[in-house]
Amino acid sequence: MRVLAAMSGGVDSAVAAARAVEAGHDVTGVHLALSAKPGTLRTGARGCCTIEDSRDARRAADILGIPFYVWDFAERFTEEVVETFVGEYAAGRTPNPCVTCNEKIKFEALLEKAIALGFDAVCTGHYARLSVVDGVPELRRSADESKDQSYVLASLTPEQLRHAMFPLGGSRKPDVRAEAAERGLAVAEKPDSHDICFIPDGDTKKFLESRLGERPGDLVDAETGAVLGKHTGVHGFTVGQRKGLGIDAPAPDGRPRYVLSLEPVSGTVKVGSSDELAVSRIDADRAIWPSQRPLDGPTECVVQVRAHGGMAPAVAEADGDEVRMSLREPLTGVAPGQVAVLYRPDADEGDVVLGSAKIAATA
């Protein structure tokens, strides 16, 4: 097959490309330039897709003996990922930009261009497994559960998965680094990127205020309605947040307060105890079924609401593109705008992704 290997400049994508070459595919490497000012996207081990990374990717491609190109996706990345991120926070929701990037950039924009150029598949260094059942792709958790990235890939469509390759799905990170060293790849010990690539200093609040300005409002006790303080914008908060609330007086019982809900129209941030954070029902919309198998009646599953952690057994029901999940065990810190991913447990071959949907409300 003709394979386009997306090479970020890190160890995972380099080894994934190497394995595609070793498997006998006709491989071409490509690095995605996602910023008009790439020097602003990395601070130490933070961020990704910088000039430094493109050079690391090129050196890896040279060692593998494959053609290599840099494609400029900066404008589309800004529109699809950065502006969506800002807009979601302005609306009082908590988005995951990595989900959006995989959906809109790596497996929409990139895949569209790859197919137009005659490639059969896009290969990435994601830790996830793909299998085919009755001619339909199934996305599964990786063998290394600590690195599993099936959550951020769960918004991909069946057609996108048919053209995807994840060579690292059955591997563990230490083994991938060891393999990179054996292959003479200089990125073998390169640190993983962390946080949001377009916020390299990790200060999301400062970044959002630079885009949205100040939108003052009240911090309100959810139980009594008492105004506890002021804030500069709901975009500076997310459900479940404890630190940085700006409340001087402790709660009457001395326990910490947490953000319970955000009301962007009125500018109200409601806070309360950790007990009030627990939710037992999640309503979501914009459902995607990666294996073309929508839920058929009430379905026992595991729901995951964050890329790492936030899992609970549940019964899920679908109605069109809407999904209601009744949790067997309560979850905390569940915010509108997050993605809820539904899994069918499979201890032997990795849990199977049933579908994903955007969280709209909780109870």
Automatic annotation (TrEMBL):
Residues 205-272 form the tRNA-specific 2-thiouridylase MnmA-like central domain. ATP binds at A6, M7, S8, G9, G10, V11, D12, S13, L32, G125. The active site is at C101, C197. Keywords: ATP-binding, Cytoplasm, Disulfide bond, Nucleotide-binding, RNA-binding, Transferase, tRNA processing, tRNA-binding. Residues 282-359 form the tRNA-specific 2-thiouridylase MnmA-like C-terminal domain. It comes from the Bacteria. It is an enzyme of class 2 (transferase). It catalyses: S-sulfanyl-L-cysteinyl-[protein] + uridine(34) in tRNA + AH2 + ATP = 2-thiouridine(34) in tRNA + L-cysteinyl-[protein] + A + AMP + diphosphate + H(+). It is found in: Cytoplasm. CDD domains: MnmA_TRMU-like (cd01998). Residues 147-149 are annotated as: Interaction with tRNA. Pfam families: tRNA_Me_trans, tRNA_Me_trans_C, tRNA_Me_trans_M. GO terms for molecular function: ATP binding; tRNA binding; tRNA-uridine 2-sulfurtransferase activity. Its EC number is 2.8.1.13. The record marks H126, Q338 as: Interaction with tRNA. Catalyzes the 2-thiolation of uridine at the wobble position (U34) of tRNA, leading to the formation of s(2)U34. Belongs to the MnmA/TRMU family. This is tRNA-specific 2-thiouridylase MnmA.
